Amino acid sequence: MADHDVLGDETAASLFARVKPQVESLPLPAGYTIEWGGEYESSKDAQEAMFKSLPMGYLLMFIITMLLFNSFKKPLVIWLTVPLSIIGVAFGLLLSNMPFSFTALLGLLSLSGMILKNGIVLMDQINLELESGKDPYLAIVDSAVSRVRPVSMAALTTILGMIPLVFDAFFGSMAITIMAGLGFATVLTLIVVPVLFAIFFKVKPAK
């Protein structure tokens, strides 16, 4: 019964990590080698293919945001919030005791798109407030306050939609990655984007 409980808490990745060094330490006759196939090989090939195309994909996304705002600083403000989601992802995986699997990596990549969308919504509102002739500092504050509800509701619906996948053995880590990362990053987006915008464009408090 105890052995069953131990194995029940083990994932394929953690079991492989525990068995791999033991198998590779076995003495082999001359001319023989060990190669790992199956899920490990498929996952490794998929990750290598993905990382090859990843830089070009992110570069294209950055160029699109530059064209969208006709600026370099504004997209940079939005993109600087993306790495902050890793904090929420780390807490989520640690608290749920789930591994950072390949599906979790896919969740992290899709998470960046969701965070960018929230940042674009907030940045667009700041632009609208500035174009109306409002003081820059008040425009930043009013934009952040007015976007709290739509940005939060969009994040909440995504998080709630991920709940059924939390208990799935294969997609559980991906669901936790998206839920924790998006929840944490949404709060930070509403705080960090206005702060970075004020710093980058040297906006002072209204007198």
UniProtKB/TrEMBL annotation:
The chain crosses the membrane at residues 49-69, 76-94, 100-116, 153-172, 178-201. Keywords: Membrane, Transmembrane, Transmembrane helix. GO terms for cellular component: plasma membrane. The keyword Transmembrane helix applies. It holds the Pfam family ACR_tran. InterPro entries: Acrflvin-R. GO terms for molecular function: xenobiotic transmembrane transporter activity. The keyword Flavoprotein does not apply. PANTHER family: CATION EFFLUX SYSTEM PROTEIN (PTHR32063:SF18), PTHR32063. This is Acriflavin resistance protein. It comes from Vibrio maritimus.
